[in-house]
Design goal:
By secondary structure, the chain is an alpha/beta fold. It has 14 helices and eleven strands. It has helices at 13-26, 32-39, 48-60, 77-94, 116-132, 147-160, 176-183, 213-229, 241-253, 271-279, 294-304, 306-336, 366-371, 374-414; strands at residues 64-69, 101-105, 137-139, 165-170, 194-198, 233-237, 261-266, 284-290, 339-344, 349-354, 359-364. The strands form two sheets. The protein has an eight-stranded parallel barrel with strand order 1-2-3-4-5-6-7-8, surrounded by five helices. The chain has a three-stranded antiparallel beta sheet with strand order 9-10-11. Strand 10 (349-354) and strand 11 (359-364) form a beta hairpin. The longest helix is centred in the C-terminal third of the chain and has 41 residues, at 374-414. The structure holds flavin-adenine dinucleotide. The site of flavin-adenine dinucleotide has 28 residues, from strand 4, strand 5, strand 7 and helix 11.
Length: 417
């Protein structure tokens, strides 16, 4: 997959990329709390309340949403029933917040790979619930073993709920244009086919999927043009500036009506591009994932875009280093105005030093100056100075270890302690 690495922290591109990939690769083995540092920008939160908060913020910024409860590839059908119940509740509760948005779901979360019929029935119940509010459910497209089954579920549901269900198609799959054409039999002006077009996120074999950035993009635009030509409703799901620009041109070329397309982006990704699309007056929907199962989703997102993992990690470490440096400067300032005193021979020689080990005062008893011999005076001065420096050292060490103790909880938090 193509990545536009532009970190300023490392000059060498390959080194940078290796570092990012390494961080993304090892993240799943880190404590969850630590991974959350990286993930929080992609996940709306753990609860539906968190997700609704994000939906409200999006709405304030003229964007709409599609809500997705995280979880996929379940291994036990009891989870499918639980997931369905959860989705029914999500719809019920979301419909009360009065914002424009719909729902996205992954069929493997309802047992697609365990029992296709049970899965279909669960998804049907969810689509029926959304339809009862005149709303819409998008079936996400998963890896290639699921494609036929997911197209089939869409076909069956489109018959029963012509305006309330849509499917995702992936431009990287070589079969997609043919799939699109095959599905045209379900299309009508009253109830158009409704697709989200994305590049595709799973690792697929080169025998069935395009692998190169240019190839994927060329097919993305071919699929998009096919949809525009056939007046299919399309969610143009990409963060790729080149594709967004090319989509603008196709929209103009085919004079696509505003109510026949929207742009879509993932929560937390390329916000500047997102805002620029909204400013131009296009509809923009944000995919808002949330839920307790955020860990798997986010580690996949980070592997997909390792640049993010590397940068967050470095930013965080750099932040901590800067914090430490700042504290050092403050400690030094403080130590400049803290003093220690040392004396020898009942005050014949007195020395004052500050916490940074700088001698600030030296006093020698007058009688000693008049009567003592020079060697004796020199010895006394050396002893007093050494004593003062020893005391200043202790003061300095105390200050530094206090500062380190203050820093430790921060560093421990960073590593999930
Ligand atoms: C709304 C939505 C729904 C999706 N649903 C599905 C689905 O059902 N099935 C499926 O297989 N795939 C899905 N995807 C993922 C999609 O297939 C791509 O893997 C993903 O969007 C990256 O491709 P891109 O078009 O953004 O282009 P890329 O060329 O991969 O990315 C372009 C630029 O966007 C930025 N970027 C892209 N992704 C990320 C990221 N995760 N984090 C940070 N920056 C990033 C990078 O700066 C990158 O240079 C969905 C994507 C979106 C936006």
């Amino acid at each position: 997959m193509y990545h536009n690495y532009n970190s300023v922290l490392f000059q060498h591109k390959n080194y940078n990329s290796m570092f990012n990939k390494m961080i993304a690769g090892i993240l799943p083995y880190f404590p969850k709390k630590f991974v959350w540092l990286f993930s929080k920008r992609y996940i709306a939160g753990v609860s539906l309340t968190d997700a609704h908060k994000v939906c409200r913020q999006l709405s304030e910024n003229k964007m709409i949403f599609t809500l997705d409860m995280l979880g996929e590839f379940i291994t036990d059908l009891s989870e499918a029933e639980e997931n369905k119940q959860a989705y029914l509740k999500i719809i019920e509760q979301t419909e009360t917040i009065g914002l424009e948005g719909n729902y996205s779901l992954k069929p493997t979360m309802f047992g697609l790979l365990l029992d296709k019929n049970i899965c279909f029935n669960h998804i049907r119940d969810i689509v029926a619930k959304a339809a009862s509010y005149n709303n819409f459910v998008r079936i996400d497209m998963e890896d290639s073993q699921c494609v036929d089954m997911e197209v089939d579920i869409y076909r069956r549901l489109k018959k029963e709920f012509p305006k309330n269900v849509g499917l995702v198609v992936q431009a990287y799959l070589k079969r997609t244009l043919t799939d699109l054409k095959n599905m045209l039999d379900m299309h009508s002006t009253e109830a158009p086919l409704n697709f989200r077009l994305c590049k595709g996120i799973y690792v697929e074999s080169p025998s069935i999927a395009y692998k190169k950035y240019e190839e994927i993009n060329a097919h993305y635009l071919e699929d998009l043009e096919c949809m525009f030509q056939n007046k299919i409703y399309v969610g143009i799901a990409t963060h790729d500036k080149n594709l967004v620009e090319a989509a603008y041109k196709l929209i103009e070329k085919h004079k696509v009506a505003k109510n026949m397309y929207e742009f879509q982006m993932l929560y937390g990704v390329t916000p500047e591009l997102r805002d620029s699309i909204v400013k131009k007056g296009h509809k923009l929907r944000v995919y808002v994932p949330y839920g307790e199962k955020w860990f798997g989703y986010s580690t996949r997102r980070l592997k997909e875009n390792p640049q993010m993992a590397g940068e967050v990690m470095l930013n965080d470490l750099m932040g901590k280093l800067q914090e430490a440096q700042q504290q050092m400067v403050e400690s030094k300032k403080r130590l400049n105005s803290v003093f220690v005193e040392a004396e020898v021979e009942n005050g014949l020689v007195k020395v004052k030093a500050n916490g940074n080990r700088k001698i600030t005062q030296l006093s020698i008893n007058k009688e000693l100056l008049q009567n003592g011999d020079i060697e004796e005076i020199e010895d006394l001065i050396i002893t007093a100075v050494n004593k003062a420096i020893e005391k200043a050292d202790k003061l300095n060490e105390g200050e530094m270890s206090g500062m380190a103790a203050n820093m430790m909880p921060n560093l421990a938090n960073l590593f999930g302690g």
